[in-house]
Design brief:
- The strands form seven sheets. An eight-stranded antiparallel beta sheet has the order 28-25-27-26-30-31-29-32.
- The longest helix has 17 residues.
- It is globular, with a radius of gyration of 25 Å.
- The chain starts with a strand and ends in a 9-residue tail after the last strand.
- Helix 2 runs antiparallel to helix 3 and helix 12 crosses helix 13.
- The protein has 540 residues and is α+β, with helices and mostly antiparallel strands.
- It binds guanosine-5',3'-tetraphosphate.
- The site of guanosine-5',3'-tetraphosphate (G4P) has 17 residues, from helix 2.
- The site of guanosine-5',3'-tetraphosphate has 17 residues, from helix 2.
Length: 540
């Protein structure tokens, strides 16, 4: 591996202060609440209110798309930036609804760590698992926050066991809940053997007052009550003998998750969790770029586009490309190399965005995210650099699991239809396929989540004034067909299948499920049927 150049110390200091992370959770586990509370404790209360209003459909002044408002979900992702304890946090929002898109996965490519929020009564839920799998692909270190301890919860040991067995990762308790449901009153911190007892505040609007004692303090019985205190001492003995201990290397390699218990709603355990993010979550790390590893403290600027979003704000009907800065310093108006286009581009219009608010960004460092006005120059996965040539590894493409025919209902609007479809394919909102021959008139669209079809339909209607129909197809598995041209005609197909081609003209076969796809491969040994992306569920 080649190192590209020497780090500069002041840049290194500033990069070391950064924590770029995302929160992953199943809907309703408490992601929005935890986000609000992290902002409350960091003193960015003005942002906390906006987070809730984005979530709340009826008051959603800040939602970008009508479909988000109708369903009260957040389809597009934003970045929140806040300071706490000498660190600068970039919190990348991932959609938390039940159905989701490749956008969610791509956001996870741009972070250095993730926080997994679980509901203490429900444990691991399907969406948590899918998002966890996407993190595991890149060995992203994951911290776990088990939320809602103020409600009747599963036993902490059962929860730790569930994380270990379902996700195949070690779970190291960092604190231990004192009571649960109405008797939940605080946490015991394993690292310094201290007891934190919190007080509830009205609607959890303010920081929860906290009393700190040592486990051996004789006044602890009085503070917690005799029963709770005896139970805590028993629990502490149990976990110190049997629990997994925290190991920084295993955490950074994605093999172990430190687990924190708390209640975001009541602000119980939020502050220690934020402190743990400073201590445990890694600052920007070197990124793979073919043979190179790009050091974030390298003075040369480099970054990659992980998300494109058009028409985010009806007032500014433009497209924004989001870049993650990977090394050096971004400055507004800088001229960078754009290797895909083999030319230089000036980065004149740079923004930080939160919902409909835009703020011009003059400078950003490794770990930060910048929105760039995109007059068609940038595509997902593009690398930008200012000096030493680098090309970051391509974005992973995920297996679409839903397919449909896309019919333009107003053939007079042929041009708008294709313009809109092209843009949305460029954004990576959906994948597009076409017929192998002229027999099939309509494009086939594929997506990771079914909701993407509705988003496509709504956006074509509202942004391009085109009405379309989406006719679902009964296929869930796509394979790239690799064989000699004459062998294709000899393929013995199963009864139900569809042959199409992707954007690079490669033949693709769609099957109803894995089983006929596997049978077809068995029946045609001279042909290779390759997955077209990374399966979204890869937990071993
Ligand atoms: P999400 O973003 O992961 O979808 O979840 P969100 O934070 O919106 O939380 C989902 C529900 O769970 C909300 O209740 C929220 O108040 C509640 N919640 C979050 N954290 C805790 C907690 O620590 N304890 C308890 N008891 N509840 C919690 P809601 O009734 O759906 O909404 P709201 O009327 O409270 O806003």
């Amino acid at each position: 591996m080649t190192k590209i150049s020497q780090p500069s110390s002041s840049l290194a200091e500033q990069v070391a202060r950064r924590r770029t992370f995302a929160i992953i959770s199943h809907p309703d586990a408490g992601k929005t609440t935890l986000t609000e509370k992290l902002l409350l404790y960091s003193g960015s209360v003005h942002l906390a209110g906006a987070v809730r209003s984005r979530k709340d459909q009826r008051h959603a002044t800040s939602d970008w798309m009508a479909i988000e408002q109708e369903r009260g979900i957040s389809i597009t992702s934003t970045v929140l930036q806040f300071n706490y304890g000498g660190c600068l946090f970039n919190l990348l929002d991932t959609p938390g609804h039940e159905d989701f898109s490749e956008d969610t996965y791509r956001t996870l490519v741009a972070v250095d760590s993730a926080v997994m929020v679980l509901d203490a009564a429900k444990g691991i839920e399907p969406q948590t698992r899918k998002l966890f799998d996407a993190c595991r692909l890149r060995q992203i270190p994951i911290l776990t926050f088990i939320n809602k301890l103020d409600h009747p919860a599963q036993h902490p040991l059962e929860l730790l066991d569930e994380i270990e067995t379902t996700l195949n990762i070690d779970a190291a308790p960092m604190n231990w809940p004192i009571g649960d449901g109405p008797t939940f009153q605080g946490v015991y911190q394993l690292s310094d053997a201290r007891v934190l007892q919190f007080e509830r505040t009205e609607h959890g609007q303010h920081r929860a007052p906290v009393t700190v004692r040592d486990l051996e303090d004789p006044t602890l019985d009085e503070l917690l009550g005799e029963e709770a205190c005896a139970q805590l001492r028993e629990d502490v003995e149990l976990i110190s003998g049997a629990g997994v201990s925290f190991d920084q290397d295993a955490f950074l390699a994605g093999r172990l998750t430190p687990v924190f218990f708390g209640s975001a709603l009541n602000n119980f355990g939020v502050e220690p969790f934020l402190d743990a993010l400073i201590k445990l979550a890694p600052p920007p790390r070197p990124r793979e770029a073919g043979e190179k590893r790009v050091d974030p403290c390298n003075n040369d600027f480099s970054g990659f586009v992980f998300k494109i979003q058009a028409n985010m704000n009806p007032k500014h009907r433009d497209s924004i490309a989001f870049i993650r800065v990977c090394s050096g310093r971004f400055t507004k108006d800088m001229t960078v190399n754009h290797p895909r286009l083999q030319r230089k581009v000036r980065l004149a219009r740079s923004f930080r965005l939160f919902a409909q608010d835009r703020e011009t960004v003059d400078e950003a460092l490794a770990g930060d995210v910048v929105g760039l006005s995109n007059p068609g120059l940038f595509a997902i996965g593009d690398t930008l650099y200012d000096s030493e040539p680098v090309t970051f590894d391509p974005m992973p493409q995920f297996e679409p699991e839903h397919f449909a025919l896309l019919r333009n209902l107003d053939t007079a609007k042929y041009k708008q239809f294709h313009k809109g479809l092209d843009q949305l394919v460029k954004e990576g909102a959906i994948q597009r396929f076409d017929a192998l021959d002229a027999s099939q008139l309509y494009p086939v669209i594929g997506a990771v989540g079914r909701l993407q079809f509705e988003v496509l339909q709504t956006r074509l209607q509202t942004e391009y004034n085109v009405d379309v129909a989406i006719d679902p197809l009964p296929y869930t598995v796509a394979r790239r067909v690799v064989c000699a041209p004459d062998a294709f005609a000899r393929i013995k197909w199963p009864m139900e299948h569809m042959s199409i081609k992707d954007q690079s003209e490669h033949p693709i076969a769609l099957f109803a499920s894995e089983w006929p796809a596997a049978r077809c491969a068995e029946n045609n040994p001279e042909v290779e049927f390759r997955p077209i992306g990374i399966a979204s569920s890869i937990t071993p």
